[in-house]
Design a protein that fits this description.
A 7-stranded mixed β-sheet has the order 3-2-1-4-5-7-6. The chain contains 6 helices and 7 strands. Helix 3 links the parallel strand 2 and strand 3. The protein has a single domain, classed as Rossmann fold (3-Layer(aba) Sandwich). The chain starts with 8 loop residues before the first helix and ends with a strand. By secondary structure, it is α/β, with parallel strands linked by helices. The longest helix has 17 residues. The chain binds S-adenosylmethionine.
């Protein structure tokens, strides 16, 4: 019997375009940690289509039941159960990863948590490791659309951290170089970082 599972339409809409980038940039990676796996939909889809990877899910504990439901229904061997990882509370998972993926987390986290995210990914990836960061961002203090600005204001009103500027991320990124900023649908971007 299938579980009742949380569902995100946004994940369904963006998972294929995200895959098209990850197929290329994670081609030489072996193990990836996903930070903020959310519903778990990205994990099952991306792990199934990137069978050379071991995909480690993680998120705050209240998301684990939903992620586990997606994983159990998917029967995919290369995706691992959720790790409790709340940036600002937990230490970075003790895993031998050479890739990190996160989607739509930087505008939800508080500014200090995003700074910690960038610093901890930079310090835990090995040399040449890849960090793929998907979502909406500001560019040199500018929003890429009026709707993005309106969404940022609504996030702040609800107590979330709001959009981060790519320059701000670069300043926190330590030994990570920003190799690519890829335009994605709906005014989103994929930032591709690599550890020097
Ligand atoms: C908008 S959801 C995105 C979920 C999923 N990645 C997606 O694209 O659908 C934001 C995610 O960020 C996670 N998150 C927020 N603050 C966090 C923190 N301090 N540490 C780790 N994850 C956090 C939430 O738990 C949630 O899963």
């Amino acid at each position: 019997m299938q579980h009742e599972k949380p569902f995100s339409q946004a994940c369904e809409n963006n998972k294929r375009v995200i895959l098209s980038v990850l197929e290329r940039v994670f081609a030489n990676c072996r193990q990836v940690l996903e930070i903020g796996s959310g519903t778990g939909q990205h994990a099952v889809f991306l792990a199934e289509h990137l069978p050379h990877l071991i995909w480690h899910t993680s998120d705050q504990p209240q998301y684990h039941e939903g992620i586990s439901a997606w994983l159990e229904d998917a029967y995919i061997e290369n995706v691992k159960p959720p790790i409790a990882f709340t940036i600002g509370q937990d230490t970075f998972p003790n895993l031998d990863v050479d890739g990190v993926f996160t989607a739509n987390t930087a505008h939800i986290m508080q500014k200090e948590e995003v700074r910690l995210l960038m610093e901890s990914v930079a310090s835990h990836l090995p040399q040449n490791g890849i960090f793929c960061q998907y979502g909406p961002f500001k560019h040199s203090s500018k929003f890429t659309s009026e709707s993005n600005h309106a969404f940022h204001v609504s996030l702040l009103e609800r107590g979330y951290g709001g959009y981060r500027d790519i320059n701000e991320l670069k300043a926190w990124a330590g030994e990570l170089s920003l190799n690519d900023v890829i335009d994605m649908p709906a005014n989103n971007h994929m930032l591709v970082w690599q550890k020097r």
